[in-house]
Amino acid sequence: MTKKLQHVFALSEKGAKDLVKAVIWCFVCNLSLMLPVGAVLFTAQHLLDAMETGGSPMEGFWIYTGFALAVLVLLFVLHWFQYASLYLATYKESASRRVSLAETLRRLPLSFFGNRDLSDLTSTMIADCSSLDQMFSHYVPQLFASVFSTLVIGVAMFVCDWRMALAILWVVPAAVLLTAGSRKIQDSFGTKNILNKRAVADCIQEGLETIRDIKACSRQDAYMEKLEKKLAAMEKGSIRSELATGVFVCSAQAFLRLGLATTILTGGALLAAGKLSFLYFLGFLFAAARLYDPLGLVLQNIAATFNAKLQIERMRSILEQPVQKGTEEFTPKNYDITFDHVSFAYREGDGVLEDVSFTAKQGEVTALIGPSGGGKSTACKLAARFWDVTGGKVLLGGTDVSTVDPETLLRSYSMVFQDVVLFRDTVMENIRLGRRGASDEEVIAAARAARCDEFIRELPRGYQTMIGENGSTLSGGERQRISIARALLKDAPVILLDEATASLDVENESAVQEALSRLLAGKTVLVIAHRMRTVEAADKIVVLSEGRVTEQGTPSELMKQSGLFRHMVELQRQSAGWKLK
Ligand SMILES: Nc1ncnc2c1ncn2[C@@H]1O[C@H](COP(=O)(O)OP(=O)(O)OP(=O)(O)O)[C@@H](O)[C@H]1O
């Protein structure tokens, strides 16, 4: 049963077990609500007996007071356990749900993120998790518990007096059926409502991410119009969804109250006919009120439970994704990177690399060149197992990288990509990301080697200056030098450089090139460079065009052929003389 609950509600094993416990406690608490009814009847019986026999009503006062207090204490204890099992367990599960989502996301190949909307993932992590917290702390356990407790209380009522039991309970199946029968309608409105809300969140996130381009293209009005349309659709959808839920739930709740009327009528008739004692009549009246209250709430919550379906599905779609796995024991015999007949496609049927074979040897600089879109960056990322290949193998030191745990593998790589990512933190910490635990002195030494030190010291608080979101307060060249400093600090045996010096001015470029050449000694270097000057000193050139290796060899060997490399070198020599009029 635990497994089934885990699957249906996207819970951990402990979460499923805790849900069972919560249902049991809610069930016990629902039954305990009948205890005060018993206490009142017990006391009333005593008073009636005393009045009939002419005894003192005060006789046994302490016993009844003690009994009432015991009921009170028992109720308190039971509700305390119910509270702990509902809320504490739910919030523990909620924390572990978020952690396991984050863990899964950490282990997913980048292909997953390529196919998913970022704002969709954000809303799953934040909004969906919160909705499920609410659902598991307030709705689901109470829903199950009410079904069981109503059954038990119903049987007890039938045992006491089947006519009164019928008068009370006939409305229950009708009210539940009315709510459950509306599921399809509520499902459809609820799903539309959630999708509308997501569309608004997407639109806001898109606007925030692209605000610079929106302004640059004077598209503010068009953007606002689009957002307003989505907001209007959301408002309409929310009202419709609430109305659809409200109509059915309120009707079902009203229907439930009809039971009180039939209880009074039936009880009154039986009482008048002498077929029911006054005490029993009183007891059934109390019991009906006690029964309908939690049931009314449950009806309200059934609708909320229907709406959670979509959120659970979205959560499950992440949790059940196949994650990248592999051995954590990785000691390659060397750090040669070998592409062995590698094919790769971001989307099925849309191949980006086709039968790519080459080796980037340890101690050598291997340059990937070729026309834009030829697959150079893709090859670099496959070398670090950011994605898994669709055909062939990528080997590091003779080991297939797809058999190595991605985080273990990445310890062997330092990377500087075109799109530098900086975090909202100090400059010091942004560089320290290269090697956790590096001392301030080591960070500063790396910054010096990457020619960052000078501009960092000019920042308002030097190395302790906070960098804005993704380094927005720094120039492109400065961002890139910080990322080079990170790579220098990491000092890994494999270096991947993707246009590493693209945003640097000539003075900085030669300074960084000098720092890089010190770092690169003895390492496996895979560099992507558009400028032929950057790759003149490479040990090996691999030309990638339309996803295939069209040439490979030393620069001088390739210059002798009249292939793409030579053509690119000549073109760049010509363009070196190009100037603005
Ligand atoms: N994340 C991605 N999802 C889908 N397609 C992608 C992705 N990244 C790249 N591509 C596509 O894969 C192909 C190769 O891209 P890649 O970036 O590897 O080429 P490149 O040779 O490095 O180009 P450039 O020199 O312009 O950076 C291109 O057609 C590109 O549109």
UniProtKB/TrEMBL annotation:
One of its GO terms (molecular function) is ATP binding. Its main location: membrane. The keyword ATP-binding applies. Residues 337-571 form the ABC transporter domain. It is found in: Cell membrane. Pfam families: ABC_membrane, ABC_tran. Residues 24-304 form the ABC transmembrane type-1 domain. It is a multi-pass membrane protein. It comes from the Bacteria. Signal peptide: none annotated. The chain crosses the membrane at residues 20-42, 62-88, 139-158, 164-182, 271-292. Keywords: ATP-binding, Membrane, Nucleotide-binding, Transmembrane, Transmembrane helix, Transport. One of its GO terms (cellular component) is plasma membrane. InterPro entries: AAA+_ATPase (IPR003593), ABC1_TM_dom (IPR011527), ABC1_TM_sf (IPR036640), ABC_transporter-like_ATP-bd (IPR003439), ABC_transporter-like_CS (IPR017871), P-loop_NTPase (IPR027417), Type_1_exporter (IPR039421). PROSITE patterns: ABC_TM1F, ABC_TRANSPORTER_1, ABC_TRANSPORTER_2. PANTHER family: ATP-BINDING CASSETTE SUB-FAMILY B (PTHR24221), ATP-BINDING CASSETTE SUB-FAMILY B MEMBER 6 (PTHR24221:SF654). This is ABC transporter ATP-binding protein.
